[in-house]
Structure formats: C-alpha cells, structure tokens
Design brief:
Blueprint: H1 4-22, E1 23-24, H2 27-30, E2 47-49, H3 54-67, E3 71-74, E4 93-96, E5 103-107, E6 112-116, H4 121-129, E7 133-134, H5 147-152, H6 160-163, H7 166-169, E8 170-176, E9 182-185, H8 198-202, E10 211-218, E11 220-221, E12 225-233, H9 236-249, E13 254-261, H10 262-271, E14 285-293, H11 301-314, E15 320-323, H12 327-338, H13 340-347, E16 350-351, E17 354-356, H14 362-376, E18 381-387, E19 392-398, H15 411-426, H16 442-448, H17 451-464
Parallel strand pairs: 2-4, 3-4
Antiparallel strand pairs: 1-2, 5-6, 6-10, 7-11, 8-9, 8-10, 12-14, 12-15, 13-14, 16-19, 17-19, 18-19
Helix pairs in contact: 1-3, 9-14, 10-13
The structure holds flavin-adenine dinucleotide (FAD).
Flavin-adenine dinucleotide (FAD) binds near residues 37, 144, 145 and 207.
Length: about 475
C-alpha cells in the first residue's frame, strides 16, 4: 500500500508531465488492463500512464527512478506469459504505449520503416502494403500486438522459417533506459562494432531493461501471390523428411511449414464454425506449407506446389495433399491452423508449453516426449503442433476427460510442466521458444537455466536497473 501523501505527490508530478489525457487514475478505466490475455494473472496499479512521445516517457521514468516506483510497460496486452501484468501490491505504474502510435517514416529505397512502440502490427502491415512493401512477421494476435511488445518479446510467428524472429528484423531501436535517459539508436548501420549491442539486449528483454519507444524495422517486397498446401502424412518423421525435401527444392519460396496432429484438426472442426477438412481421407498427421512469390521472374507458387507435391507423393513422404485454388481457400487452410489454440481451449483444460529443440531433433522429440508424458500421467493426451520448420511446437498436454477441472492445472498441471521442461532441457532445448518468460516461467527459468547464463543475466539487470524499477518480478527474480 502506498501512503496517501506520497501517492498524491507522485501523481501531481506525473500529471504535470502528462496532463489529463496521459494519466489515468480511475480504477474502472484501468481494470481491463490489469488481467493478462489468457486471464491467468490479475494485478493492481496505482495509475496508468500513457505518454504521448518518447520525451514525456523519459520524464516519467526519471520520476519513477527518483521515487523508486515500479513501471510495468504494456503494449497490446496480448502476451502469453503474464509479462505485462503488474503484481497485486498496487505499487506499480502501468505504462501504456497506446498513444505512441505514429509511423514516422517508410523508406522504400532503404526498405525500412520507423514505427513507434504503440503501433499495432496489423496497422503496420496495412501502411507498408500501401507502398508495395511487406513487414514479414505475422501472428494470431496481430490486431492487438504492438511493435514495442513484439520487440520486447522477440516475437516469432509463422514466417520465421524464411525471415527470422523480430531479432532478425529490427535494424534500430530508440528506448528509454531505467535512469530516464533516451537511447537514440534508430539509424541503421549494416556494420557496427562498437562493443556490446544495446539493441540486442533490449530485444527480448520483456521491459526489464528499459522501454522501447520506437524501432526501425526491415521491409521486403510485397507478395505477388502464394499457394498454401495442406498435406496428410504418417508421422512427424515424415513431416521432417518433407521439410528437408522442400528446403532443398523450394528454398526461399517456402515461408511457412506447420505441423498439425489429427487431434487438433478434429477439435478445430468440432469447435470452430465454418471450418472443413481439406482432405477427404483420414491421416494421423498434417502439415501446412506456404509457398510464395515476391519476384515477378519466379515460378507461380501454385504450379510449383503441384510439381513438388507430386514428387513428395512419389517418394512416399506424404499420403495426400490439397493445394489452395484461391486466396479464400489459402485463408481457409490457415484458419484451421490459427484456430487450434481456441479449439483446444474449448475442448477442455490443458497445460501449454511453448518449446524448442534443435530443428533436426523436433520430430523425434514430439514422438518420444509425447509417449513419456502420456505414460507418466495416465489419461493425458499430448498434442504438439506448430512451427516444425523452426524446431518450435506448442506442446499441449490435455487433461484426462475425468479430471477434476477445478484442481487442474494446480495439482497435476505443475508437475506435468516440470516433467515436460525437464525433457526439453535434456534435449538441449528452450522452455520458451517465442512467448518469453514473464511471470509464468520465471521460476522454471531459475530452476533450469544454465547457471553461468543466469548469473550474467542477473548482473546485466542489476547494472542497468540498479533500483529494480523496470517490470519487477518478470524474467528474473532479484
Ligand atoms: C491469438 C494470439 C496468437 C499469438 N501468436 C504468437 C506467435 O505465433 N508468436 C509469438 O511470438 N507470439 C504470439 N502471440 C503472443 C503475443 O502476441 C506476442 O508476445 C506479442 O509480441 C505481444 O505484444 P503486445 O504489444 O501485446 O505486448 P504486451 O503483451 O503488452 O507485452 C509483452 C511484454 O513486452 C513488454 N513490453 C510491451 N511493450 C513494451 C515496450 N514498448 N518496451 C518494453 N517492454 C514492452 C511487456 O512489459 C511484457 O513483458 C500470440 C498472441 C495471441 C493473442
């Protein structure tokens, strides 16, 4: 609890910088932003601050540093690990970037865009598309996720296979550091060897080392057309062989390669209206492959897909395939993939794990770890789906049908997650492939993280944020 006179003097100082628009103290207006997207974490804040620009934000951070006030940055609040939700003490300021939403420049020749932290991903897509360009990162939360959040979680999505995660797409960063200084690193340099790279420290830092105010992002030419393939196959091992075949033959024409077990497709068809199976027969596993063309001299993706799938069929890699005949059908195939999370939720309680292992090992991991989990926790059912081409799947462990839903996930759920994470670490993998650590995985990272790495992370945090005001309790506990 904050004592009233201290609180009012803090609010007066904030108000002098932000005015009425930028300082929100009415609990009813703040409430919707105090719960995370999955509804797992509920926090409290003494106020929400929404600065209009980086200079206002820097002043706010200076005041917070002087008063030792915690700041929790929040963009679209679409994160999956409770990173943007304050703790329940009510001591923190929730810092919303919603008003910092200007696209400052789109440079068609340099092929980049400078976007402020609060720009929503979908808005950015539309703005650069109007100039014949494309920002090649997309994900299910694109209508809410912001540039600041995407940078700070080093987000991935469905085009990582070709274009990489945010880390590969951020060319420059502007940020307010925990002492309130403004780091101006938006200029893009292809070569720059002046020591530690602050940009890369801030990418994926989840707001624990500062607040990203803007970023320079790489653009690529807009797509001319695409073809989406839905193929049925025998096992994740066959999917891995198909991936290798397509990497050899299609190279950069392939932008996405997603794996879907039959269980997930069944649940989507059951719970999501307007969906239908692309193939008539039954298959234990499926893959979705996207082939694209952004160069007029390249072959048409639909023709390429047909030729490649005919070869894959001949080699026994796939059992059957459907190739999108229109943009609407391509969208329908993607909808099946994008609806899995929603359908799994509708089906019942499950423990979700966003994990990666080396790409070459993922198919075997899915089979072996799945069998171990189901043997160890009777009645559970594993559904691993997602970015096989990146060695990253969402490893869901569904509760037995007879499970006491009120106890799940607390009782068996935690033990299941620890078991899965142990298997991941044994396989040399990561317990967070793309969603970050936040508050959800903080203790698991502390339990399983390489000690030398954890010590270095802690030292960096202490050095840059000695007062511990930047998103405390997230990523690492001090
Ligand atoms: C339906 C759905 C599908 C998704 N699919 C994917 C996917 O495929 N791949 C993927 O990677 N993610 C996915 N996500 C997760 C989410 O969209 C990403 O984590 C996204 O990057 C979060 O952006 P945000 O603006 O909502 O950030 P928030 O949720 O608001 O914040 C996320 C973290 O970043 C910090 N933060 C936010 N803004 C700033 C800033 N300006 N400076 C410093 N720190 C900041 C917060 O404190 C928090 O720790 C999905 C989410 C949804 C809802």
């Amino acid at each position: 609890m904050i004592e009233a006179p201290i609180r009012s003097s803090l609010l007066e100082r904030l108000s002098a910088v932000l005015g009425d628009k930028g300082l929100i103290t009415d609990a009813r207006d703040i409430a919707p932003w105090l719960t995370d997207w999955r509804g797992r974490y509920h926090g409290a804040a003494q106020a929400m601050v929404a600065p209009a620009n980086a200079h206002e934000l820097a002043q706010i951070v200076r005041i917070a540093a002087q008063t030792g006030t915690a700041i929790v940055p929040q963009g679209g609040n679409s994160g999956m690990v409770g990173g943007a939700t304050p703790d329940q003490s009510g001591a923190a300021l929730l810092l919303s970037t919603r008003r910092m939403n200007v696209i400052r420049a789109i440079d068609g020749q340099a092929r980049n865009v400078i976007a402020e932290a609060g720009v929503v991903l979908q808005t950015l897509h539309e703005a650069v598309a109007a100039k014949g360009l494309r920002f090649p990162l997309t994900l299910g939360g694109k209508g809410s996720a912001t540039i600041g959040g995407l940078v700070s979680t080093n987000a991935g999505g469905t085009q990582v296979l070709r274009h990489g995660t945010m880390r590969a797409l951020v060319e420059g960063i502007e940020a307010v550091l925990p002492d309130g200084s403004l780091y101006q690193g938006l200029v893009t340099l292809k070569k720059d060897n002046r020591g530690y790279d602050l940009k890369h420290l801030l990418i994926g830092a989840e707001g624990t080392l500062g607040i990203v105010t803007a970023a320079t992002l790489k653009l690529v030419p807009a797509l001319i057309d695409r073809a989406v393939v839905w193929a049925g196959l025998e096992s994740p091992l066959a999917a891995r062989q198909l991936l290798l075949f397509l990497e050899d033959c299609a190279g950069h024409e392939m932008e996405g390669f997603e794996i879907v077990p039959q269980r997930c497709l069944t649940n989507v068809l059951r719970h999501v209206p307007g969906t239908r199976a692309p193939l008539s027969g039954a298959h234990r596993w499926h893959v979705l492959v996207e082939l694209v063309r952004d160069n007029p001299s390249a072959a048409q993706p639909a023709e390429r897909a047909e030729a490649l799938m005919a070869q894959a069929l001949e080699r026994g890699l796939i059992e059957d395939a459907a190739i999108s005949a229109s943009e609407a059908q391509a969208g329908a195939f993607w909808k099946l993939r994008d609806s899995i999370s929603e359908a799994e939720r509708a089906e019942g309680p499950a423990m979700q794990h966003d994990i990666s292992v080396p790409v070459a090992d993922m198919a075997r991991f899915i089979i072996e770890a799945g069998a171990k989990v189901e043997a160890r926790f009777a009645g559970t059912e594993v559904a691993a789906y997602g970015h096989l081409g990146d060695g990253n799947v969402h490893f869901h462990v569904a509760a037995p049908k007879s499970a006491d839903v009120s106890a799940w996930p607390a009782t068996p759920g935690k033990a299941i997650s620890a078991f899965v994470h142990d298997l991941v670490v044994e396989a040399g993998g990561s317990i967070s492939a793309e969603h970050g650590i936040g508050q959800m995985k903080r203790d698991e990272l502390a339990r399983l993280g390489d000690p030398a790495r954890m010590a270095a992370l802690t030292a960096i945090k202490r050095a840059l944020d000695p007062k511990g005001i930047m998103n405390p309790g997230k990523l690492i506990a001090l």
